[in-house]
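# step 3/5: fold
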Amino acid sequence: MNTISLELHVSDFVPIKQYYTALGFEIAWERKPEGHKGYLVLTFGDSTLCFWAGNELVYDQSYFKQFPNNSPRGYGVELVINVDNIEDFYKKHEIALNVVEPLKTKPWGLKDFRAVDPAGFYLRFSEPHDVTDPKYAVQ
């Protein structure tokens, strides 16, 4: 059971499904958008991403409706997805990923790269690690 749920609000499930399934995510289940009932759950190993709405009603959500519809939903949010064999994964998906920062070793000793998904969410693909271990703190 997950202890933290992540739900991303998007206006269209189609590009989301195309993007993430091309990377190896699987659709756990989906409720087609019908009013405010659209929901999509994707899994990748032990990682789970949830998406809500899938239609124009995403812009009427109680908090987010105060922002213009063209505001990036993912501004200031970084999703970290741990990937085994990150070099192979990067080579295989580099073109489709919309990479904004290429694969390299970071000061905390892990290889990672950054990409942006079709809804504007900022993704960090990283080597698997335990984020609670202080050895990954930048010295």
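# step 4/5: annotate
The chain has a mean pLDDT of 89.
# step 5/5: archive (pending)
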